Amino acid sequence: MYVCLCNGITESDIRKAAAAGCSSLPELTMRTGVGACCGSCVETATEVLQRAQPAPASPGLDLPVLAVARAA
């Protein structure tokens, strides 16, 4: 679906930008041009960008597993 008609930016374009590390509307505007003309797409573009952000990693998932010796 087109989000920004002025610049022909789609939801897919915004998701790709998010996957490449884009995390704010100003950065998205710099990368894609979304919201740079009439501005009517800004709310939708922001929502799509927020939904496309990768989930934060759970703390502790990258820690090594230690073996624990049990007393006999």
Short structural summary:
The chain is mainly alpha-helical. It is built from 3 helices and 2 strands, in the order ββααα. Helices cover 39% and strands 7% of the residues.
Descriptive report:
One of its GO terms (molecular function) is 2 iron, 2 sulfur cluster binding. Its cofactor is [2Fe-2S] cluster. InterPro entries: BFD-associated_ferredoxin, BFD-like_2Fe2S-bd_dom, BFD-like_2Fe2S-bd_dom_sf. Residues 2-50 form the BFD-like [2Fe-2S]-binding domain. It comes from Luteimonas salinisoli. The protein is mainly α and 72 residues long. It has one domain (2-52): Arc Repressor Mutant, subunit A, CATH 1.10.10. 39% of the residues lie in helices and 7% in strands. It has helices spanning 11-19, 25-32, 42-52; strands at residues 2-4, 9-10. Strands 1-2 form a two-stranded antiparallel ribbon. A hairpin with a 4-residue loop joins β1 and β2. α1 (11-19) packs across α3 (42-52). The model has no long low-confidence stretch (mean pLDDT 89).
Give keywords.
single chain, mainly alpha, 3 helices, rod-shaped, electron transport, transport, metal ion binding, 2Fe-2S
Topology:
Blueprint: E1 2-4, E2 9-10, H1 11-19, H2 25-32, H3 42-52
Antiparallel strand pairs: 1-2
Helix pairs in contact: 1-3
Give the full name of the CATH homologous superfamily: BFD-like [2Fe-2S]-binding domain
Q: How many domains?
A: 1
For this structure, the CATH topology is Arc Repressor Mutant, subunit A
User: Averaging pLDDT over every residue, what do you get?
Assistant: 89
- Write the H/E string, N to C: EEHHH
The assigned CATH architecture is Orthogonal Bundle
Largest sheet: 2 strands, antiparallel
Low-confidence stretches: none
User: What topology, given as strand order, has the largest sheet?
Assistant: 1-2
Broad CATH class: Mainly Alpha
Radius of gyration, in angstroms, nearest whole number: 20 Å
Count of alpha and pi helical runs: 3
| Total beta strand runs | 2
| Broad structural category | mainly alpha
Q: Beta-strand percentage?
A: 5-15%
Q: Fraction of residues in helices?
A: 25-40%
